């Protein structure tokens, strides 16, 4: 009798899994309607949300709305018993700031300005400085040329010389300012002055938050003071920035040490704020310890100094509400006994517009194992028609980015779902390695990709017209096309969540 009972249980389990694999997703996809998308978007992109800047009261209102809807849909909390993954930001108001070079005092915000991430205080005096050209260090170039800069003040030019090329994306590039400062620190420098044509504005710095580094990262990366100096400083020495650039040219130069008294004083006035990613899930069945992510960013760029609201209906209100409706569709399927085999995680992230902050925080502090995350389907703008697209299929397309990276399963699954159900034109334009926009590296999927998780990014191509303008409003959205795109992504997610195997990771991520 024991054997018969065991056989019966195994048979029932097999039938259950088979039913989940073959359940028809169409009734659930059809719940992603134009009416509901418009209802939610009219709230997310309303004046009440004030453009959803990171951080802002409007952003918190949007997060609270998403959380409330997840609860109403029957979507479970994605971070243990919470729908939020919180992370801290900080900004620096610099209560004391002075620079004196060669006996001349310079004016803060007019002649010089601090780097955004600084130690709490600095009171430094130097008798000399070392000029190292552009301060670039990579596998092919070292502008320090073994110069001894330990305990010294280092000066370099911002940016890069004409003709300099690197395959690394912006934040990993050797010309990225933070990496130049880190290289100076690694060489032993005590402080850095960065020659720049333009200073960051006082208003931008005093009102601009950045992710708060962990203690270890703060000690490692932010332990030396760094300041931008402009032509007002350089011309006091009888030169100009353009003359310096011309004299250096494209190549490296021997570092130059010059005797000159320099005094720097700085006292921080740091303030902190807390924001959150909003995370919900629909738990899987027999593969519940494997995960599929569906993501979008719910922040936008806020308001300008004149009080104009940047509504962000397409960017990325369209992605936000599409993820919400997909979460509802999966929750409905589970309630009817046809839920996914894998756990599907729906994450709306903050701070994308400021530098992919929320997704970066998640990738460094994952709630679920990244090696058990089969894929991330990221949506950033699917509500409009690309104003630059001149082909006849403008009412029936979506740009798909990432199809030829990380996994050969990606296009097969996505194209299969689309061909069976929605028949959109899947345009791979932005996967061209020569695409100057480098779209693959510009939204939240990249923080999954750099950790090895296969990703697809869905996008309408809007880089002009109302992009990052107050005119990105709900009335401009093509809800019929948006719903069709969201349904196609839902079908793709359905297949990825229910197939036998996780996606292969058989391709390298090319830069």
Automatic annotation (TrEMBL):
The keyword Transmembrane does not apply. Residues 1-19 form the signal peptide. Residues 142-232 form the PA domain. Pfam families: PA, Peptidase_M28. Residues 277-491 form the Peptidase M28 domain. The keyword rRNA processing does not apply. InterPro entries: M28_fam, PA_dom_sf, PA_domain, Peptidase_M28. Gene3D superfamilies: 3.50.30.30, Zn peptidases (3.40.630.10). Keywords: Signal. It comes from the Bacteria. SUPFAM superfamilies: PA domain (SSF52025), Zn-dependent exopeptidases (SSF53187). This is M28 family peptidase. It comes from Niabella yanshanensis. The lineage of its organism: Bacteria, Pseudomonadati, Bacteroidota, Chitinophagia, Chitinophagales.
């Amino acid at each position: 009798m024991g054997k018969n009972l065991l056989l019966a249980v195994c048979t029932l389990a097999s039938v259950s899994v088979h039913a989940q694999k073959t359940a028809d997703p169409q009734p659930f996809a059809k719940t992603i309607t134009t009416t509901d998308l418009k209802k939610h978007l009219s709230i997310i992109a309303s004046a009440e949300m004030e453009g959803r800047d990171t951080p802002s009261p409007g952003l918190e209102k949007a997060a609270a709305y998403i959380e409330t809807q997840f609860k109403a849909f029957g979507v479970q909390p994605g971070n243990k018993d919470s729908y939020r993954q919180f992370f801290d930001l900080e900004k620096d108001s610099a209560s004391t700031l002075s620079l004196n070079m060669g006996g001349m005092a310079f004016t803060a915000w007019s002649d010089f300005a601090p780097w955004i991430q600084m130690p709490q205080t600095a009171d430094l005096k130097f008798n000399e400085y070392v000029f190292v050209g552009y301060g670039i260090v990579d596998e092919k170039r070292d502008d320090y040329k073994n110069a001894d800069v330990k305990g010294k003040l280092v000066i370099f030019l911002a940016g890069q010389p004409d003709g300099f090329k690197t395959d690394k994306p912006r934040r990993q590039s050797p010309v990225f300012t933070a990496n130049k400062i880190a290289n100076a620190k690694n060489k032993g420098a005590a402080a850095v002055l960065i020659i720049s044509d333009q200073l960051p504005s006082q208003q931008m710095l005093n009102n601009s938050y950045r992710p708060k580094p962990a203690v270890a990262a703060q000690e490692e990366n932010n332990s030396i003071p760094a300041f931008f100096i402009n032509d007002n400083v350089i011309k006091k020495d009888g030169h100009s920035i353009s003359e310096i650039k011309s004299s250096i040219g494209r190549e490296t130069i021997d570092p130059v040490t010059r005797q000159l008294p320099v005094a720097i004083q700085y006292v921080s006035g740091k303030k902190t704020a807390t924001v959150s990613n909003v995370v919900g899930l629909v738990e899987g069945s027999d593969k519940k310890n494997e995960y599929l992510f569906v993501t979008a960013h719910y922040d936008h760029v806020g308001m300008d100094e004149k009080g104009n609201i940047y509504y962000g209906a397409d960017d990325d209100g369209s992605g936000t509400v599409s993820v919400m409706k997909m979460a509802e569709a999966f929750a409905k399927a589970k309630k009817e006994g046809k839920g996914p085999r894998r756990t599907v995680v729906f994450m709306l992230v903050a701070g994308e517009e400021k530098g992919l902050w929320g997704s970066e925080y998640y990738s460094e502090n994952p709630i679920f194992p990244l090696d058990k995350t089969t894929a991330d389907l990221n949506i950033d703008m699917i509500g409009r028609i690309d104003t630059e697209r001149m082909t006849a299929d403008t009412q029936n397309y979506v740009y798909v980015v990432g199809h030829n990276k990380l996994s050969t399963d990606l296009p097969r699954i996505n194209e299969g779902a689309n061909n069976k159900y929605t028949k959109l034109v899947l345009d791979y334009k932005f996967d061209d390695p020569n695409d100057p926009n480098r779209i693959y590296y510009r939204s939240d999927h990249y923080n999954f990709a750099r950790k090895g998780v296969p990703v697809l990014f869905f996008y309408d191509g809007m880089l002009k017209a109302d992009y990052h303008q107050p005119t990105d409003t709900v009335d401009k959205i093509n809800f019929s096309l948006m719903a069709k795109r969201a349904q196609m992504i839902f079908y793709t997610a359905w297949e990825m969540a229910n197939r036998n195997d996780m996606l292969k990771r058989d391709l390298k991520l090319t830069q």
